[in-house]
Amino acid sequence: MVILDRRFDWLGRQIAWTRRGSGPPLVFCHGTPWSSRLWAPFAAALADEFTVYLWDMPGYGASSKRADHDVDLSVQGAAFTALLEHCDLDRPHVVAHDYGGAVSLRTHLLDDVAYASLCLVDVVALRPWGSPFFTLVKDNANVFAQLPAAVHRGALEAYISGASHRGLRPEDLAMLTAPWCDDEGQAAFYRQIAQADERLTAELEPLLPGLTTPTHIIWGENDTWIPADRAHRLHEAIPTSTLALVAEAGHLIQLDQPVALATQLRHWLTHATRA
């Protein structure tokens, strides 16, 4: 297991991160309600060719989860910009999943941070987004935050399980739910949903046609959280992008089809470093 053994202080928040390997910089961005642990095996596999960076967004994983700190997309984009500055990274390769797609796009398009390449994996980028459960929680976050622990765990496990097409192993489900199961984590889970706002992706949509950074889109064909029609729309919105659909994979493509995803990532990054 990869441990985030470094801490970066930013606006009162502690951002957990780590670095390993050697070669061109490669940064992985997780989504919600995930953490860097979802990307850890892929980062480890690529550390022989890249200096890989893993981090947890504020409010997620091993990073701080203070109740008085906002965790919306604008905050996360600013946090990512600050992290890249802190690590002194010049034109890193970036791989992003889910919410991390919008985070990495905000840093690139709104903060003018240059990337060597960008790989978007089942990302939040185009409206509409959010499952029916996500919408229900967003409208009633204060009520959900007060659920008894056992009821919260049951709802959380059911919600997360729905992101997989093939079904989650017990150890994978435990890994994904663990950050959200204590009192601090339960409150943080519902807080990050309550602060979700499509306005913050709407700001990006007009800018996508002008994206010239080499961009590859990877999507699970069976993603029910963000259906594959978004992949085609995103591909059309970014004229220079390439697109690969992965069969028998849902939103948690990292766990549904790890070999296919690893093959796609290595092929793309090899191409991107030689371009």
Automatic annotation (TrEMBL):
One of its GO terms (molecular function) is catalytic activity. It comes from the Bacteria. Signal peptide: none annotated. Residues 26-262 form the AB hydrolase-1 domain. Gene3D superfamilies: alpha/beta hydrolase. InterPro entries: AB_hydrolase_1 (IPR000073), AB_hydrolase_fold (IPR029058), Carboxylesterase_BioH (IPR050228). Transmembrane segments: none annotated. Pfam families: Abhydrolase_6. This is Pimeloyl-ACP methyl ester carboxylesterase. It comes from Jatrophihabitans endophyticus.
